[in-house]
Amino acid sequence: MQKHEFLHQHRYAEIISYQLYRHIDVINCRPDTDTALKSVNFYWAYKNADQRFLPDRAKHYLYNCNSSLNLKQLKALSTRIDETQHSHRFYVRKTRNASVNLSLYYEAARGKPLVNTINAAQPVILCNYEDVPTICPLSEHVPQKRKANRQGHAWECLSETINLYMRSITEEDKQRENS
Fold this sequence. Notes:
Elements: H1 2-10, H2 18-22, E1 25-28, E2 36-45, E3 51-53, H3 55-64, H4 71-84, E4 88-92, E5 99-107, E6 114-119, E7 124-127, E8 134-136, H5 144-150, E9 155-159, E10 164-168, H6 171-178
Parallel strand pairs: 1-7, 2-8
Antiparallel strand pairs: 2-5, 3-4, 4-10, 5-6, 9-10
Helix pairs in contact: 3-4
């Protein structure tokens, strides 16, 4: 409702099409009386889209995906899955395109800033501010950053051709499953 009211108040109703309306976000810089928006930071968000497989499902995927692996390579990977099925988990890496997100930094009454993060893959209109917030522009997009970020995890590649990976089962994983 706030978005609807703002757009129709500042842009006459007859010039706002529904298509344009869907592609604009309105952010209220004063969501309550204790805070005021101080800065807005745009950044690239790299979301995980990995799909976890149980060992039998990983082997099914291995044999049914259209890959250039020969029968000997497939059998070697299948054996590796069998040998590590009790100590590792299996994943197919799915890469999503990076999306644009933004962090809103509000000044709180007690001194500790409040941060709100939202997806902002569309134009944003800031409204109701007393002092103009600092706006930090979007940094240059580096597509390799996602791959570099993932190298810090304990992932082991079984086959780069079909994006099949495995990762050790940690104590945290075991406790989570037992509870």
